[in-house]
Each structure stands twice: as structure tokens, then as C-alpha cells.
Amino acid sequence: MKFNLTSNFWGAVQDTPPLFAVVHRVTTDEEKAGRVFRALQRKLSTAALACLTTSLFSELPDLDLPLFRYVCKAVKAGQSIETNFADPDVLFVTNTYRKVRYERLRMMQFVRFQKTADGTYFAMIEPDYDVLPLIVPHFSDRFSEECWLIYDRRRRYGYYYAGHKSVRVTFEDGAEVFRLPDGRLSEAMRDEDEMWYQEMWRTYFNVSSI
């Protein structure tokens, strides 16, 4: 498998603004961002901070403003607002977090690796939310002695682990991975015992579904 490595976690996003829109570019200021985060640490619990950061992986276009208002309210409030679910912004962000957390758990439970001819374990996923970075630590710990690759077909990137650390990877257009519509490796790419493991997995999945 040939792939390109990249250290850009989020990737490049290029949006074309509407015809009459006014574009305001904001440059990240690490010092100001640090001050805001430290203020949130004083006002919110560790669980609430995780709620804010994890909700970002939903990629929901409607999250930006509720999340911004949540942060503003949290900084200004005299006490924590994280359990004030009567506030629509707190409720929306919390519900988004729960959806992402559930999707993360679902992927951790049902990711199915296929063993390739060269001994690498490969899995293709297509989660509702961008949870791949959230599940990588789990598999890095669980399969710390193996080489594996988990690829998100919808977002066109993956993580490759070679026994010591995981690296974000992207494939060149036309690579073999794009010719796997159902995520299954071709017979030439599979390890000779893989079909037997696939049959066991189908049996397990059917029983779990029932």
C-alpha cells in the first residue's frame, strides 16, 4: 500500500464565500487562546471541557455559534453552567458531545480488521462523525505490537500504526484503497486465513445484532 504522510491534523479547508459575503479572516493567537482555555479550566469541570473539545469532531455546521456562546457564558458566569440544560446552547453542545461519544464507542466495538498478505491489519470505516482520531489511542493500546491501518473512507484519511506510534496518512488518487467500495480487500491482498476470520466475524456480528 502506497500512501503519503502528513502532519496536518485537520487538513486544508478551502471554502468559496458567497458572492456578497464579507470575509473576515481570524489568525490564531496562541496567547489569547491560552487565556480563554485557562479561564474555562477555572469555571468548568474536566468532563465539561472534554464535552466542548469532543463536540468539535461532529463537524456539524450548526455547532459553531452555540459552542461560541457556551464558551462566552461559561467565562462570564459566576459558577459553572455545564449542568444548566435549560440553556439551549449548553443543551445543544452537550447533546452533540453525546452523539460523538456514542459514535466513538460504536467504532471501537465494531471495527473489523482484515489481515493483508504482508501482515498489516487493515480496516475501512465510514462513521457519522469524524471520530477516527478519538479511537486511535484505543487501538494503539490494544494492538500495540501489531502494524495496522484504519482508513475513513468518507473523509479520505487514515491512521497507520507500526508498533510504536500512529501517523496520519492520506492516499494518492487512484490508490487501491479507493477501489474497495465495500471495504473488503481483494483476494490478492488478503492473508490466506482471512476468509475464515471474516466468517467468524459475520457470525459474531449477526448474534450481536439479534
Properties at a glance:
210 residues; single chain; disordered N terminus; globular; 6 helices; alpha+beta; 41% helix
Strand content: 5-15%
Mean pLDDT metric: 81
Structural class: alpha+beta
Outline type? globular
| Distance between the first and last residues' Cα | 36 Å
Task: Please explain how this structure is put together.
By secondary structure, this protein is an alpha+beta fold. The protein has six helices and six strands, in the order βααααββαβββα. The protein has helices spanning 30-43, 46-55, 64-76, 88-110, 132-142, 194-209, and strands spanning 4-5, 114-115, 121-125, 147-152, 157-162, 166-170. The protein has a six-stranded mixed β-sheet with strand order 1-6-5-4-3-2. The radius of gyration is 21 Å and the shape is globular. The protein starts with a strand and ends with a helix.
Write the layout of secondary structure elements.
Layout: E1 4-5, H1 30-43, H2 46-55, H3 64-76, H4 88-110, E2 114-115, E3 121-125, H5 132-142, E4 147-152, E5 157-162, E6 166-170, H6 194-209
Parallel strand pairs: 3-4
Antiparallel strand pairs: 1-6, 2-3, 4-5, 5-6
Helix pairs in contact: 2-4, 3-4, 4-5
How would you briefly describe this protein structure?
By secondary structure, the protein is of the alpha+beta class. 41% of the residues lie in helices and 12% in strands. A 6-stranded mixed sheet has the order 1-6-5-4-3-2.
